[in-house]
Specification:
c-terminal domain of poly(a) binding protein; 185 residues; mainly alpha; two-stranded antiparallel ribbon; rod-shaped; 58% helix; single chain; 3 domains
Length: 185
């Protein structure tokens, strides 16, 4: 089989003169091979996106978001890939719910294991109403624990070298609480 025959064999089914005119067939075949190479990579990417979409839909049914499910699965060392998770979400709702409950419980224990986060009134990320809540910091009891330095992204939020002490995270709004928890995890 000559080179010309191979090109025409690959150009079979093309429209117009690209299937029977050699000069045009060469260009179309080369471009077709480029598209085939690129599409083999895209096929895998698109399949993964579809799996993630199906898993996210299943998570929302149980009141959870996809990223927290993956984080909880990593914490509880559940090693199920996304393809199998999407199959479970579609065909085995009870098994999928069990995985979600396990992920939720491991997230809860991870949050409870961490020391309480303490903020100072000089934190620039606080909104006005949160600054007002921080304006009167709680004092520790005489026999209580001392404040340990708490750092997020390298910034000192509170600790012993803070002269005015700090306030425990409970005084902040729910959205700031969630935002700071996501930084800690």
């Amino acid at each position: 089989m000559t080179r010309r025959d191979k090109i025409f064999a690959l150009a079979k089914g093309f429209r117009g003169r690209a299937k029977n005119c050699y000069r045009l067939a060469i260009r179309r075949v080369e471009k077709g091979l480029q598209y085939a190479y690129k599409s083999r990579k895209l096929k895998k990417r698109i399949a993964r996106q579809e799996w993630i979409t199906q898993i996210a839909g299943g998570c929302r049914e149980h009141g959870m978001v996809y990223s927290r499910l993956i984080q909880g699965m990593n914490l509880s060392r559940i090693a199920v890939d996304r393809k199998m998770l999407s199959v479970l979400a579609q065909t085995e709702p009870y098994s999928f719910r069990a995985i979600i409950e396990e992920a939720k419980s491991s997230l809860r224990t991870a949050v409870l294991r961490q020391p309480p986060l303490v903020l100072t009134r000089r934190d620039p990320t606080l909104r006005a109403e949160e600054r007002a809540a921080v304006a009167a910091p709680r004092k520790l009891e005489p026999g209580g624990e001392r404040l340990l330095p708490v750092r997020i992204d390298g910034r000192l939020l509170a600790g012993e070298d803070e002269p005015d002490g700090g306030v425990v995270l409970e005084d902040l709004s729910h959205t700031s609480y969630q935002k700071l928890l996501s930084h800690r995890m």
